[in-house]
Specification:
Blueprint (H helix, E strand, L loop, with lengths): L1 H13 L3 H12 L4 H8 L5 H40 L18 H15 L3 E2 L5 E2 L1 H4 L10 H5 L17 E2 L5 H10 L3 E10 L10 E11 L4 H16 L6 E8 L2 E14 L2 E4 L4 E11 L1 H6 L8 E8 H9 L12 H7 L16
Bound molecules: phenylalanine.
């Protein structure tokens, strides 16, 4: 019995965790444990032997049980100590500076654009960045063989072998949101759709991901005159100048007819851009009257409704307004750049409070 006791007490003292303790408990004092086995042997003993062995076995059982309980409590204490040590926190550390992060110029300019168009009654619409090729191309009157598909340097997703459906694309422009917004809301409608777009292109003025804002207004008597007025109002508000001159250059897009690219009058004096004066012209967007087939793809009857649409590069107008020379820096996440060009979190652009401060 001394043997038994010494063996189990040692095991208990050396147990590393609760499950080890439990295994010892079962082996020692469990229903089929060693102490129970010995108790069963009492029946074969003489009454004298039994009188000595019975109480001794009971005492042994008690002793093992209390050793188990003590070891369990000690393990729990150690675990708590360890946790307190790990979760220790020095509350005397100095707090962080207040202006840790800044609003990215793209976010700021998107807010500015949204505020200006909201004032003219345009709501914001959204669509997925991974788009079906129908929404990105076909619905916009760009059928499968159309050269515009090749020109756009499209990123395609992968289809499983043997799956003949056309692959999805990373949308190459925000124009698919025209179709989705028409389908969702019908006519009349006035929306802008800012967001990310993708093309396989990379240099000073191109990054594979960039941002556009789409604009679309559909009603019973919309004309190019409305388009021109809306864009002039936008450019005046955005560049914060009273007078601007826009130049509409005949162009071609499959989804508009007629189509126009729009330039603004500007000057470059010693590398700084001034909008509204000078002898230079700067292209800022593509636009036109929505093609009847596009209205139809959006379930809107072209015999009853007309609309204009435009698409503008957000990154581009951000570069122009804030004098940022290299587009690629927008997406480098260089902290020094972000601190320099970023906006304070509370500088929310509004038409009343000023767009940029
Ligand atoms: N989707 C065109 C582009 O990405 C821009 C555009 C939009 C032109 C709407 C006309 C009308 O170049």
């Amino acid at each position: 019995m001394d043997d038994l006791k010494a063996r189990y007490l040692t095991q208990i003292a050396e147990a590393e965790d609760e499950s080890a303790l439990e295994a010892i408990r079962i082996a020692a004092v469990g229903k089929k444990g060693e102490v129970a086995l010995r108790m069963r042997e009492l029946g074969k003993m003489t009454p004298e032997e039994r009188q000595a062995a019975g109480p001794a076995l009971n005492a042994l059982k008690d002793e093992i049980n209390s050793a188990l309980a003590a070891r369990k409590a000690a393990l729990a204490d150690a675990a708590l100590d360890e946790r307190l040590r790990a979760e220790w926190l020095d509350v005397t550390l100095p707090a962080r500076g207040r202006r840790q992060g800044t609003i990215h110029p793209i976010s700021q300019v998107t807010e500015e654009v949204t505020a200006i168009f909201a004032d003219m009654g345009f709501a914001v619409a959204e669509g997925p960045q991974i788009e079906s090729d129908w929404y990105n191309f076909d619905a916009l009157n760009i059928p499968g063989h159309h050269p515009a598909r090749a020109e756009m340097d499209t990123f395609y997703t992968h289809r499983a072998e043997g799956d003949d459906r056309p692959p999805h694309v990373l949308r190459t422009h925000t124009s698919p949101v025209q179709i989705r917004a028409m389908q969702d809301q019908g006519a009349p409608i006035r929306v802008i759709a800012p967001g990310r777009v993708y093309r396989a292109d990379y240099d000073m003025t191109h990054t594979p991901m960039f941002h556009q804002v789409e604009g679309m207004a559909i009603d019973r008597d919309i004309s190019m005159a409305n388009l021109k007025w809306v864009l002039e109002e936008f450019v005046k508000a955005f560049f914060e100048v009273d007078d601007v001159e826009l130049r509409f250059r005949a162009s071609h897009f499959p989804f508009t007819e007629p189509s126009a690219e729009v330039d603004i009058r500007c000057s470059w004096e010693s590398g700084t851009l001034k909008v509204g004066e000078g002898d230079d012209w700067l292209e800022i967007l593509g636009s036109g009257m929505m093609h009847p087939k596009v209205l139809e793809a959006g379930n809107i009857d072209p015999a009853e409704w007309q609309g204009f649409a435009f698409g503008m590069g957000i990154d581009r107008i951000a570069m122009l307004k804030y004098g940022i020379p290299d587009l690629r820096a927008f997406f480098d996440s260089d902290l020094r750049w972000l601190r320099h060009y970023g906006f304070a979190a509370l500088d929310v652009p509004t038409l009343r409070g000023g767009l940029s401060r």
